[in-house]
Amino acid sequence: MTTLTAQDWHQKAAALIYPTGHFIDGAHDAGGSARFSVTNPATGRELCTVASGDAGTVDRAVASGRAAFRSGVWRRMAPRDRMAILQRYADLLDAHAERFALLDTLCMGKPIRDMLTIDVPSSSQTFRYFAELSDKIDGSVTSTASDAFHYILREPLGVVGCIVPWNYPLLMASWKVAPALAAGNSVVLKPAEQSPLSALLMAELFIEAGGPAGVFNVVNGLGETVGAPLSLHMDVNKIAFTGSTEVGKLMLVAAGRSNMKRVSLECGGKSPQIFLPDLGDMDRAVSYAINGIFGNMGEVCNAGSRLLVHRAIADEFIAKFRAAGTDAYRAGDPLDPETNLGPMVTDSHCARVTGLIETGVREGAKLEFGGSRPALPGSYVNPTLFSGVTNQMTIAREEIFGPVASVIVFDELAEAIRIANDSIYGLAASVWTRDLVTAHKTVRDLEAGVIWVNCFDHGDMTQPFGGYKQSGQGRDKCLESLLSYTQTKSAWVHLG
């Protein structure tokens, strides 16, 4: 953890120079006259204005990526040479950790401590993992008749459009960009308009690491003016998207309306955690429940927002959650290393979260603590716990994307599984039990892409991350993710 103080970080922030254009064909691009404002949600004040791209900007970026792809400068580079560049790139991410931390903290309010201990090291780890896989993309030779030789090649797709959210600006970009590059593709990255600044530094450092111009491009702008043209572009071979379910569906429509490009989606979630009477260490389980919903201000797709607790332990669980959770996360200056709860990303999102809290009270849920806003400037919401929630209440069904937990009491495991699966989402889930048979049966029956047993949000780069149902399709991290940025070519050679 950094030894810098809040004052030190504010001094560094004051001296920070923001990149505010696009990055196309290996260089910063100032863009046209259209610009949009980037606001610090902790203060409500404008940080800077950034060039707002349009369909023409997207065309230029895609053309640059396509030219680099056709030239073979990246895709036909020896895999271990690509590996070396991506490993140098990961080193540069670590070397610029403070700058990345400042950029994302100032844009979206993430505590600086989280950037330094989670986001930046996880991003460099992502690039190292996929760098190591660069020469592990294998083809195959099949057994055929004696007069034929049949082999299957696995090749990169071409130009990949990566559209990423604001809750983990650097990390979510890394999850998309790293496997796309490792497989030999070119990339056009569209960051969220709320948090565009770290993406420009990412692209700049790719060139510094030795990456060829045109392989990694960034276009800033709104969803309507940049995201839509990118998803509809006839020369983009894949869209890799993380964001809302509503927009994810538009990506699928755009693929059908254009060139039938591939689409991978990681969308919303309403993750259930099932706590059974034989969970063992109650304090540990409650600690995971608290961190699973209040971490990153609850702005996490797989946040464990639905706490399904067996009636036999419900009173104790709620009492322990209330005792440990009320002051576990305290709102404060995100540039203070002691702060672990930053603001919501925007005023409008803050209003949405507080509106859903009011809906929970109105629909009859019991407010155990929180539900208010602290006396701070900026878009803050205090951590909130509801009990007495049913799965039909709005707060149990809608993705709040804020620090709001709901306790739902059940009597039998079958009932808990039914409640857990009664959702349009299926991103993640967990079960807490010491019974091995119960654990494996629950994993089998839960409809979710990621399931934890006696923990929450654990994992490493080998773990596929993605969901069932309207939480999306495709997987991030893992070997499967790398292969999703490739396609196969079958060659049949007649030897007669």
Commentary on this structure:
The structure is a single chain. With 496 residues, the chain is α/β, with parallel strands linked by helices. 40% of the residues lie in helices and 20% in strands. The protein contains 16 helices and 22 strands. The strands form 6 sheets. A 7-stranded mixed β-sheet has the order 14-15-16-13-12-18-19, sandwiched between helices. It is globular and about 75 Å long. The model has no long low-confidence stretch (mean pLDDT 97).
* Helix/strand/pairing category: alpha/beta
The outline comes out as globular
- Number of discrete helical segments: 16
Q: What is the CATH level 1 assignment of the largest domain?
A: Alpha Beta
Counted beta strands: 22
Q: Tell me the major beta sheet.
A: 7 strands, mixed
> Spatial order of the strands in the main sheet?
14-15-16-13-12-18-19
Task: Provide the CATH architecture of the largest domain.
Answer: 3-Layer(aba) Sandwich
Quaternary status: single chain
The total tally of domains equals 2
Radius of gyration, in Å, reads 23 Å
CATH H level of the largest domain: which superfamily?
A: Aldehyde Dehydrogenase, Chain A, domain 1
Please name the CATH topology of the largest domain: Aldehyde Dehydrogenase, Chain A, domain 1
Our estimate of the beta-strand percent is 15-25%
Proportion in helices: 40-55%
Low-confidence stretches: none
The N- to C-terminal Cα distance equals 67 Å
Mean pLDDT, rounded to whole units? 97
